[in-house]
Amino acid sequence: MPSWLIFLFAIEGGLLSGGVQQGDEIFEHPEYASYVTMEAEMRAGPVFVGSSIETQQRAVDHGAAYPEFAPYRALYTFNAGLRFSVFEIGWEHMCDHPVESNGHESSPFAGGHDRLYARVEVTTGASD
Q1: CA-CA distance, 9 to 103, in Å (whole number)?
Q2: Confidence at residue 116, expressed as pLDDT on a 0 to 100 scale
């Protein structure tokens, strides 16, 4: 593989709290809600293309020895752009979709947005 071509894969997980509001509607994350995010990016010189999916899920007790996790929301992101040293320009599309899982309540919200951006990133201090 050429040295200028880089593939990145990451996985992340954690707990959620709070909620989402749209107009007068409020959707609180269920108790014991968690998320898993998977992300991939390809870089070729200054060009990058990436994508990620975050799945939000709740613990559901069916009386078994362990709880079942039922997804209720999925967030998708796709991005592309150019990176030069401390400067980046790009485009990102993010969309949010409810997920129906074994008859359990899903998030009532769906939507998305696109953004064009320019970013300057400067770091100071010692690096590891």
Answers
A1: 32
A2: 96
